[in-house]
Design a protein that fits this description.
Nucleotidyltransferase, domain 5, 398 residues, 2 domains, 6-stranded mixed β-sheet, 18% strand, 38% helix, alpha/beta, 8-stranded mixed β-sheet, 15 helices
Amino acid sequence: MKILVINAGSSSLKYQFMDSESGEVFAKGVCERIGIDGKLTHKVPGKENYEKDIPMPTHNEAIRSVLEIMVDPNHGVISSVDEIDAVGHRVLHGGSAFTKSCIIDDACIAAIEKCIPLGPLHNPANLMGIRACQELMPDKKQVAVFDTAFHMTMPPEAYIYAIPYEYYEKDDVRRYGFHGTSHRYISSRALHMLGRENNPEGTKIITCHLGNGSSMAAIKDGKCIDTTMGLGPLAGVPMGTRSGDIDSTIIEYLMGIYNYDIKTMMNILNKKSGMLGLSGVSSDYRDIQKAAKEGNSRAKLALDKFVYEVRKVIGAYTAVMQGVDAIVFTAGVGENDWLMREWISSGFEYLGISLDKKKNENCREEADVSAPDSKTRIFVIPTNEELVIAMDTAMLCK
């Protein structure tokens, strides 16, 4: 089936038009500055990129611009919108209500709205994309694919927080986790590379989605049993600008010293911390590595901290699962930074984990970069969240 995949943000909208079976991408692009002035960037394989400033007061105009460029005689890939079989939407937060993707109807929308307090920045934007598509393509089936759904197999001891239980019962406070479609995709590919896609029972995989936003997951028997992000995407290992896990006392302490309100404090933790806050250089790992090579001690400290925290999680998840068959690297840093993979993988020799340095350094696509004698496989797998969304959409719309 030919699926239009939509990822709507508050002021942007990313899209891909693709074949759900082959994974072929016919076109992709992004609408930016929605609500300001509007800009469309449209890419078709084998053709020159198309860019145009287009007024986009709302997501409706953004979706309309996407549909118009898709059928454009010079830049389009279809002759009619009728060639779009269905639409798949990335939705950030499904709460406990959604353990899998679902056809979008009134009940689904009501449930997504109920999750807005859990995803206040993303869920309203996701709904704007959904409603725009409903208005402009009322005859097309639409599917919601949730970032949190893959992690809903976690056992209670992994997802519960040690705070008064009433906050879980009344207010849904628990670990949810994010990047679920990515962890789902790369863990399924890892099972395939292990030759266990049809028999995942007994397998133990650690997935490392490392980029500007980073999360890790423990996958046992093909199901998630733990993940680093929590109620929101601030938890876990340090990220580009997010702090990751910290002692919550720090929040009260700094608010008291500097008279910050909670909004200011959360802005610091979300946008001024992590690799940027530690290094003082950048949130981009390439810039930080360059600075470290030039002798910047804070840049080196930031890299050491990131590597330390990722390795700590790998150790913890190995203990929880009582072993590990494969460690998987993906996303911007995980896929492209061979040096970071080498640093993270070192020091696990006592577990029989060994990286092939030459394979790792030359890796440019999906590959096994572990040494021949390694007891644990080390995989690099480029993620494909859009394909997961397209596949789920096709499955539900047949």
